[in-house]
Design goal:
- It is a single chain.
- By secondary structure, the chain is an alpha/beta fold.
- The protein has 2 domains: 38-141; 158-343, Stimulator of interferon genes protein (Rossmann fold, 3-Layer(aba) Sandwich).
- The protein has helices at 18-37, 42-72, 82-89, 94-110, 117-137, 144-153, 158-188, 217-220, 269-278, 286-305, 329-343; strands spanning 2-3, 203-208, 224-229, 233-237, 240-245, 248-253, 259-266, 314-320.
- The strands form 2 sheets. Strands 1-8-2-7-6-3 form a 6-stranded mixed sheet. A two-stranded antiparallel ribbon has the order 4-5.
- The N and C termini lie far apart (78 Å).
- Residues 157-342 form the STING ligand-binding domain.
Length: 404
Protein backbone atom coordinates (compact mmCIF):
# COMPACT_ATOMS: atom_id res chain seq x y z
CA UNK A 1 0.00 0.00 0.00
CA UNK A 2 1.17 3.48 -0.78
CA UNK A 3 -0.14 6.85 0.18
CA UNK A 4 -1.26 8.92 -2.76
CA UNK A 5 0.33 12.28 -3.40
CA UNK A 6 -2.47 13.53 -5.58
CA UNK A 7 -5.88 12.14 -4.73
CA UNK A 8 -7.54 14.06 -7.56
CA UNK A 9 -6.30 11.48 -10.04
CA UNK A 10 -8.02 8.67 -8.14
CA UNK A 11 -11.03 9.99 -6.23
CA UNK A 12 -14.09 10.09 -8.53
CA UNK A 13 -15.63 13.51 -8.78
CA UNK A 14 -19.41 14.01 -8.79
CA UNK A 15 -20.86 13.73 -12.27
CA UNK A 16 -21.54 17.02 -13.98
CA UNK A 17 -23.90 18.38 -16.62
CA UNK A 18 -21.95 17.44 -19.76
CA UNK A 19 -24.57 14.84 -20.87
CA UNK A 20 -27.25 17.53 -20.71
CA UNK A 21 -25.13 19.91 -22.76
CA UNK A 22 -24.44 17.24 -25.39
CA UNK A 23 -28.12 16.30 -25.54
CA UNK A 24 -29.13 19.94 -25.95
CA UNK A 25 -26.58 20.41 -28.74
CA UNK A 26 -27.77 17.23 -30.49
CA UNK A 27 -31.42 18.34 -30.24
CA UNK A 28 -30.54 21.80 -31.60
CA UNK A 29 -28.74 20.29 -34.60
CA UNK A 30 -31.61 17.90 -35.29
CA UNK A 31 -34.26 20.60 -35.04
CA UNK A 32 -32.16 22.85 -37.26
CA UNK A 33 -31.98 20.13 -39.91
CA UNK A 34 -35.73 19.62 -39.71
CA UNK A 35 -36.29 23.34 -40.19
CA UNK A 36 -34.14 23.30 -43.33
CA UNK A 37 -35.79 20.21 -44.84
CA UNK A 38 -39.46 20.81 -43.98
CA UNK A 39 -40.06 24.02 -42.00
CA UNK A 40 -43.82 23.98 -42.56
CA UNK A 41 -44.23 20.77 -40.54
CA UNK A 42 -41.71 21.46 -37.76
CA UNK A 43 -44.18 21.98 -34.91
CA UNK A 44 -46.21 18.95 -35.92
CA UNK A 45 -43.15 16.70 -35.94
CA UNK A 46 -41.92 18.05 -32.59
CA UNK A 47 -45.34 17.59 -31.00
CA UNK A 48 -45.68 14.02 -32.26
CA UNK A 49 -42.17 13.06 -31.06
CA UNK A 50 -42.86 14.56 -27.62
CA UNK A 51 -46.11 12.60 -27.44
CA UNK A 52 -44.30 9.37 -28.31
CA UNK A 53 -41.59 10.03 -25.71
CA UNK A 54 -44.12 10.86 -22.98
CA UNK A 55 -46.90 8.38 -23.76
CA UNK A 56 -44.42 5.51 -23.69
CA UNK A 57 -43.33 6.18 -20.07
CA UNK A 58 -46.97 6.81 -19.11
CA UNK A 59 -48.04 3.42 -20.45
CA UNK A 60 -45.10 1.78 -18.70
CA UNK A 61 -46.09 3.59 -15.52
CA UNK A 62 -49.58 2.13 -15.79
CA UNK A 63 -48.05 -1.35 -15.98
CA UNK A 64 -46.03 -0.62 -12.84
CA UNK A 65 -49.12 0.81 -11.14
CA UNK A 66 -51.01 -2.45 -11.59
CA UNK A 67 -48.31 -4.36 -9.69
CA UNK A 68 -48.08 -1.79 -6.91
CA UNK A 69 -51.83 -1.50 -6.37
CA UNK A 70 -52.53 -5.23 -6.31
CA UNK A 71 -49.62 -6.47 -4.19
CA UNK A 72 -47.74 -3.61 -2.49
CA UNK A 73 -50.18 -0.88 -1.56
CA UNK A 74 -50.27 -1.90 2.10
CA UNK A 75 -46.77 -3.27 2.68
CA UNK A 76 -44.76 -0.64 0.81
CA UNK A 77 -46.99 2.44 1.04
CA UNK A 78 -48.85 1.78 4.30
CA UNK A 79 -52.16 2.94 2.87
CA UNK A 80 -50.83 6.34 1.78
CA UNK A 81 -52.62 8.32 -0.89
CA UNK A 82 -52.68 7.17 -4.50
CA UNK A 83 -52.02 10.59 -6.00
CA UNK A 84 -49.37 11.73 -3.52
CA UNK A 85 -47.20 8.58 -3.33
CA UNK A 86 -48.09 5.67 -5.59
CA UNK A 87 -48.46 7.56 -8.90
CA UNK A 88 -45.16 9.49 -8.60
CA UNK A 89 -43.39 6.28 -7.58
CA UNK A 90 -44.58 4.63 -10.82
CA UNK A 91 -43.38 7.50 -13.00
CA UNK A 92 -46.82 9.03 -13.43
CA UNK A 93 -45.70 12.40 -12.16
CA UNK A 94 -47.08 15.80 -12.98
CA UNK A 95 -44.20 16.77 -15.29
CA UNK A 96 -44.77 13.82 -17.63
CA UNK A 97 -48.53 14.37 -17.73
CA UNK A 98 -48.04 18.09 -18.34
CA UNK A 99 -45.57 17.49 -21.18
CA UNK A 100 -47.92 14.99 -22.82
CA UNK A 101 -50.87 17.38 -22.52
CA UNK A 102 -48.97 20.33 -23.99
CA UNK A 103 -47.66 18.16 -26.83
CA UNK A 104 -51.22 16.98 -27.61
CA UNK A 105 -52.46 20.56 -27.75
CA UNK A 106 -49.53 21.58 -29.97
CA UNK A 107 -50.18 18.66 -32.34
CA UNK A 108 -53.85 19.63 -32.57
CA UNK A 109 -53.01 23.25 -33.38
CA UNK A 110 -50.14 22.56 -35.78
CA UNK A 111 -51.87 19.81 -37.67
CA UNK A 112 -50.74 16.31 -38.44
CA UNK A 113 -47.25 16.13 -39.95
CA UNK A 114 -48.08 13.03 -42.01
CA UNK A 115 -50.23 13.01 -45.10
CA UNK A 116 -52.88 10.79 -43.58
CA UNK A 117 -54.22 11.41 -40.09
CA UNK A 118 -54.67 7.72 -39.47
CA UNK A 119 -50.95 7.10 -40.04
CA UNK A 120 -50.07 9.69 -37.42
CA UNK A 121 -52.19 8.11 -34.69
CA UNK A 122 -51.09 4.56 -35.61
CA UNK A 123 -47.45 5.55 -35.37
CA UNK A 124 -48.07 7.36 -32.11
CA UNK A 125 -49.79 4.51 -30.26
CA UNK A 126 -47.63 1.75 -31.80
CA UNK A 127 -44.39 3.46 -30.75
CA UNK A 128 -45.71 4.12 -27.25
CA UNK A 129 -46.87 0.53 -26.75
CA UNK A 130 -43.58 -0.91 -28.01
CA UNK A 131 -41.68 1.44 -25.71
CA UNK A 132 -43.61 0.15 -22.71
CA UNK A 133 -42.90 -3.46 -23.79
CA UNK A 134 -39.16 -2.96 -24.29
CA UNK A 135 -38.93 -0.98 -21.07
CA UNK A 136 -40.57 -3.78 -19.11
CA UNK A 137 -38.27 -6.37 -20.69
CA UNK A 138 -35.19 -4.35 -19.72
CA UNK A 139 -34.15 -3.52 -23.27
CA UNK A 140 -34.55 0.19 -22.57
CA UNK A 141 -33.47 -0.07 -18.94
CA UNK A 142 -31.11 2.45 -17.36
CA UNK A 143 -27.40 2.00 -17.98
CA UNK A 144 -24.86 1.43 -15.24
CA UNK A 145 -23.80 5.05 -15.48
CA UNK A 146 -27.38 6.22 -14.98
CA UNK A 147 -27.88 3.91 -12.01
CA UNK A 148 -24.60 5.08 -10.49
CA UNK A 149 -25.54 8.70 -11.05
CA UNK A 150 -28.91 8.23 -9.35
CA UNK A 151 -27.41 6.34 -6.41
CA UNK A 152 -24.68 8.93 -5.88
CA UNK A 153 -27.03 11.85 -6.29
CA UNK A 154 -29.55 10.44 -3.81
CA UNK A 155 -26.89 9.05 -1.42
CA UNK A 156 -28.10 5.49 -1.91
CA UNK A 157 -24.75 3.69 -2.19
CA UNK A 158 -23.40 1.32 0.44
CA UNK A 159 -20.49 3.69 0.90
CA UNK A 160 -22.77 6.61 1.81
CA UNK A 161 -24.48 4.62 4.55
CA UNK A 162 -21.21 3.32 5.96
CA UNK A 163 -19.64 6.80 5.95
CA UNK A 164 -22.58 8.37 7.78
CA UNK A 165 -22.71 5.49 10.26
CA UNK A 166 -18.97 5.82 10.93
CA UNK A 167 -19.37 9.54 11.55
CA UNK A 168 -22.57 9.58 13.59
CA UNK A 169 -21.88 6.43 15.57
CA UNK A 170 -18.18 6.89 16.25
CA UNK A 171 -16.20 9.91 15.04
CA UNK A 172 -18.64 12.57 16.22
CA UNK A 173 -18.59 10.99 19.67
CA UNK A 174 -14.87 10.39 20.18
CA UNK A 175 -13.10 13.18 18.27
CA UNK A 176 -14.24 16.01 20.59
CA UNK A 177 -12.74 14.01 23.51
CA UNK A 178 -9.50 13.15 21.73
CA UNK A 179 -7.51 16.19 22.84
CA UNK A 180 -8.29 15.55 26.50
CA UNK A 181 -7.40 11.88 26.17
CA UNK A 182 -4.04 12.71 24.60
CA UNK A 183 -3.32 15.29 27.32
CA UNK A 184 -4.06 12.72 30.02
CA UNK A 185 -1.90 10.17 28.22
CA UNK A 186 1.05 12.54 27.98
CA UNK A 187 0.77 13.38 31.67
CA UNK A 188 1.26 9.74 32.60
CA UNK A 189 3.91 8.95 29.97
CA UNK A 190 6.85 11.22 30.64
CA UNK A 191 9.11 9.69 28.00
CA UNK A 192 6.81 10.55 25.11
CA UNK A 193 5.95 14.13 25.99
CA UNK A 194 8.37 15.78 23.57
CA UNK A 195 7.53 13.60 20.57
CA UNK A 196 3.91 14.70 20.14
CA UNK A 197 3.80 17.23 17.34
CA UNK A 198 0.80 19.04 15.97
CA UNK A 199 -0.01 16.32 13.46
CA UNK A 200 0.25 13.51 16.00
CA UNK A 201 -2.44 15.11 18.15
CA UNK A 202 -5.01 14.15 15.52
CA UNK A 203 -6.65 10.82 14.84
CA UNK A 204 -5.05 9.33 11.73
CA UNK A 205 -7.68 7.30 9.86
CA UNK A 206 -6.29 4.84 7.30
CA UNK A 207 -8.42 4.07 4.24
CA UNK A 208 -6.83 1.30 2.12
CA UNK A 209 -8.20 0.92 -1.39
CA UNK A 210 -8.29 -2.86 -1.23
CA UNK A 211 -10.27 -2.69 2.06
CA UNK A 212 -8.06 -5.49 3.42
CA UNK A 213 -7.40 -4.43 7.00
CA UNK A 214 -4.97 -5.96 9.43
CA UNK A 215 -6.00 -5.88 13.09
CA UNK A 216 -2.42 -5.18 14.19
CA UNK A 217 -0.44 -2.48 12.42
CA UNK A 218 2.91 -3.96 13.43
CA UNK A 219 2.05 -6.98 11.28
CA UNK A 220 1.89 -4.71 8.23
CA UNK A 221 5.13 -2.80 8.89
CA UNK A 222 7.97 -3.67 11.27
CA UNK A 223 8.74 0.05 11.69
CA UNK A 224 5.46 0.43 13.59
CA UNK A 225 5.19 -0.65 17.22
CA UNK A 226 2.24 -0.66 19.56
CA UNK A 227 2.94 1.77 22.40
CA UNK A 228 -0.14 1.95 24.62
CA UNK A 229 -3.82 2.80 24.66
CA UNK A 230 -5.27 6.21 25.36
CA UNK A 231 -7.53 6.50 28.41
CA UNK A 232 -10.92 5.01 27.67
CA UNK A 233 -13.84 7.23 26.82
CA UNK A 234 -17.09 6.04 28.39
CA UNK A 235 -20.32 7.26 26.79
CA UNK A 236 -23.90 6.21 27.45
CA UNK A 237 -25.05 4.93 24.08
CA UNK A 238 -28.20 3.10 22.90
CA UNK A 239 -29.09 1.79 26.35
CA UNK A 240 -25.54 0.74 27.23
CA UNK A 241 -24.25 2.57 30.30
CA UNK A 242 -20.65 3.60 30.01
CA UNK A 243 -19.94 2.09 26.60
CA UNK A 244 -16.15 2.11 26.14
CA UNK A 245 -14.44 3.76 23.19
CA UNK A 246 -10.68 3.48 22.97
CA UNK A 247 -7.76 4.45 20.73
CA UNK A 248 -4.31 2.94 20.38
CA UNK A 249 -1.03 4.83 20.29
CA UNK A 250 1.69 3.58 17.97
CA UNK A 251 5.39 4.46 17.66
CA UNK A 252 6.49 4.92 14.06
CA UNK A 253 10.23 4.86 13.31
CA UNK A 254 11.64 7.11 10.60
CA UNK A 255 14.77 6.41 8.54
CA UNK A 256 16.96 7.79 11.33
CA UNK A 257 15.44 5.46 13.91
CA UNK A 258 13.56 8.26 15.71
CA UNK A 259 10.17 7.28 17.12
CA UNK A 260 7.06 9.36 16.45
CA UNK A 261 4.01 8.63 18.57
CA UNK A 262 0.58 9.04 17.02
CA UNK A 263 -2.98 7.80 17.33
CA UNK A 264 -3.73 5.78 14.21
CA UNK A 265 -6.36 3.24 13.21
CA UNK A 266 -8.10 1.85 10.15
CA UNK A 267 -11.58 2.91 9.11
CA UNK A 268 -13.51 -0.03 10.51
CA UNK A 269 -16.48 0.14 8.05
CA UNK A 270 -14.07 -1.09 5.37
CA UNK A 271 -14.22 -4.49 7.06
CA UNK A 272 -17.87 -4.64 6.01
CA UNK A 273 -17.01 -3.82 2.40
CA UNK A 274 -14.30 -6.47 2.33
CA UNK A 275 -16.58 -9.11 3.86
CA UNK A 276 -19.34 -8.29 1.38
CA UNK A 277 -16.94 -8.82 -1.52
CA UNK A 278 -16.14 -12.29 -0.15
CA UNK A 279 -19.82 -13.33 -0.09
CA UNK A 280 -21.25 -14.45 -3.43
CA UNK A 281 -24.80 -13.74 -2.30
CA UNK A 282 -23.97 -10.05 -1.81
CA UNK A 283 -23.27 -9.57 -5.52
CA UNK A 284 -20.35 -7.36 -4.64
CA UNK A 285 -17.14 -8.03 -6.56
CA UNK A 286 -13.70 -6.50 -6.35
CA UNK A 287 -14.33 -3.66 -8.87
CA UNK A 288 -17.50 -2.65 -7.03
CA UNK A 289 -15.64 -2.82 -3.71
CA UNK A 290 -12.89 -0.52 -4.95
CA UNK A 291 -15.44 1.96 -6.26
CA UNK A 292 -17.30 1.91 -2.96
CA UNK A 293 -14.07 2.51 -1.01
CA UNK A 294 -13.39 5.62 -3.09
CA UNK A 295 -16.95 6.84 -2.56
CA UNK A 296 -16.61 6.11 1.16
CA UNK A 297 -13.46 8.24 1.33
CA UNK A 298 -15.03 11.12 -0.61
CA UNK A 299 -18.27 11.03 1.39
CA UNK A 300 -16.52 10.82 4.76
CA UNK A 301 -14.20 13.66 3.79
CA UNK A 302 -17.16 15.87 2.83
CA UNK A 303 -18.96 15.03 6.08
CA UNK A 304 -15.98 15.76 8.31
CA UNK A 305 -15.11 18.99 6.52
CA UNK A 306 -18.53 20.38 7.45
CA UNK A 307 -18.50 19.03 11.02
CA UNK A 308 -17.71 21.58 13.71
CA UNK A 309 -17.22 18.84 16.31
CA UNK A 310 -14.53 17.06 14.30
CA UNK A 311 -12.70 19.97 12.70
CA UNK A 312 -8.88 19.87 13.06
CA UNK A 313 -9.07 16.61 15.02
CA UNK A 314 -8.60 14.04 12.24
CA UNK A 315 -6.58 13.20 9.15
CA UNK A 316 -7.77 10.85 6.43
CA UNK A 317 -4.99 8.89 4.75
CA UNK A 318 -5.90 7.13 1.52
CA UNK A 319 -3.63 4.15 0.85
CA UNK A 320 -3.04 2.60 -2.54
CA UNK A 321 -2.30 -1.08 -3.03
CA UNK A 322 -0.12 -0.84 -6.13
CA UNK A 323 3.23 -1.26 -4.34
CA UNK A 324 2.71 -3.96 -1.75
CA UNK A 325 6.29 -5.20 -2.23
CA UNK A 326 7.64 -2.36 -0.08
CA UNK A 327 7.49 -3.55 3.56
CA UNK A 328 7.63 0.02 4.96
CA UNK A 329 5.00 1.71 2.81
CA UNK A 330 2.58 2.12 5.71
CA UNK A 331 5.09 3.77 8.04
CA UNK A 332 6.28 6.06 5.23
CA UNK A 333 2.72 7.14 4.54
CA UNK A 334 2.07 7.94 8.21
CA UNK A 335 5.35 9.84 8.61
CA UNK A 336 4.71 11.79 5.42
CA UNK A 337 1.39 13.03 6.75
CA UNK A 338 2.88 13.83 10.16
CA UNK A 339 5.63 15.89 8.55
CA UNK A 340 3.10 17.65 6.37
CA UNK A 341 1.09 18.65 9.42
CA UNK A 342 4.19 19.99 11.13
CA UNK A 343 5.09 22.12 8.11
CA UNK A 344 1.58 23.59 8.04
CA UNK A 345 1.82 24.72 11.67
CA UNK A 346 2.03 28.49 12.00
CA UNK A 347 4.62 30.13 14.25
CA UNK A 348 3.25 32.97 16.27
CA UNK A 349 5.21 36.20 16.39
CA UNK A 350 7.27 36.48 19.61
CA UNK A 351 6.22 39.05 22.21
CA UNK A 352 7.03 42.59 21.07
CA UNK A 353 10.23 44.20 22.33
CA UNK A 354 9.48 47.77 23.34
CA UNK A 355 12.22 50.36 23.26
CA UNK A 356 12.60 54.09 23.73
CA UNK A 357 15.30 56.11 22.04
CA UNK A 358 15.79 58.21 25.16
CA UNK A 359 14.62 56.28 28.21
CA UNK A 360 14.21 58.03 31.47
CA UNK A 361 17.25 57.98 33.66
CA UNK A 362 15.39 56.94 36.78
CA UNK A 363 12.00 55.91 37.97
CA UNK A 364 11.57 59.18 39.80
CA UNK A 365 11.11 61.05 36.56
CA UNK A 366 14.56 62.70 36.30
CA UNK A 367 15.24 63.93 32.77
CA UNK A 368 17.86 62.39 30.55
CA UNK A 369 21.35 63.77 30.41
CA UNK A 370 20.84 65.53 27.10
CA UNK A 371 17.68 67.20 28.34
CA UNK A 372 15.64 65.94 25.41
CA UNK A 373 13.23 63.94 27.46
CA UNK A 374 9.93 65.43 26.43
CA UNK A 375 10.10 64.16 22.81
CA UNK A 376 10.83 60.44 23.05
CA UNK A 377 10.67 58.33 19.91
CA UNK A 378 7.66 56.09 19.60
CA UNK A 379 8.01 52.53 20.82
CA UNK A 380 8.59 49.93 18.11
CA UNK A 381 5.91 47.24 18.13
CA UNK A 382 5.27 44.52 15.58
CA UNK A 383 1.68 43.49 14.96
CA UNK A 384 0.86 40.24 16.69
CA UNK A 385 -2.00 37.78 16.67
CA UNK A 386 -3.31 37.03 20.14
CA UNK A 387 -5.33 33.98 21.16
CA UNK A 388 -7.35 33.35 24.26
CA UNK A 389 -7.01 29.89 25.79
CA UNK A 390 -10.04 30.35 28.01
CA UNK A 391 -13.26 28.58 27.14
CA UNK A 392 -16.12 30.85 26.01
CA UNK A 393 -18.43 31.81 28.86
CA UNK A 394 -22.22 32.01 28.57
CA UNK A 395 -23.82 35.41 28.46
CA UNK A 396 -24.99 36.72 31.81
CA UNK A 397 -28.64 37.12 32.39
CA UNK A 398 -29.79 40.68 33.11
CA UNK A 399 -29.83 41.47 36.81
CA UNK A 400 -32.33 43.96 38.10
CA UNK A 401 -30.79 46.54 40.45
CA UNK A 402 -33.55 48.62 41.92
CA UNK A 403 -32.71 51.22 44.49
CA UNK A 404 -35.57 52.07 46.74
Amino acid sequence: MQSLKDHDTLIPRPRGTLPKVCAAALAAVTIGGTVVLSPERLFGWVAMVILILTLGPLLHGLCLLAEEMFYHSNTRYRGRGLLSHVLPACGLGGKTLLAAGLAGILLYLAGHPLQHKGQCWKLLFLASALYALFKSLGVLGPSEVEVSDVCEGRKMNVAHGLAWSFYLGYLRLVLPRLEGSIAAFRATHQASRSSWGRGSRKLLILVPLNANISHKLEEEDDNIFFYDNLPNSEIDRAGVRGRVYKHSVYSVLDKHGKAHECVVEYATPLLTLYSMSQESSAGFGEPERRQQVLLFYRTLQDILEHSLECRNRYKLILLNDEHEDDPHVLSKAILRHLQQQEKEEFCLTPPPHQEMAHPLASASGAPAANGDWHHPEQMSREPTLMFSLEKPQPLREPVENTYQ
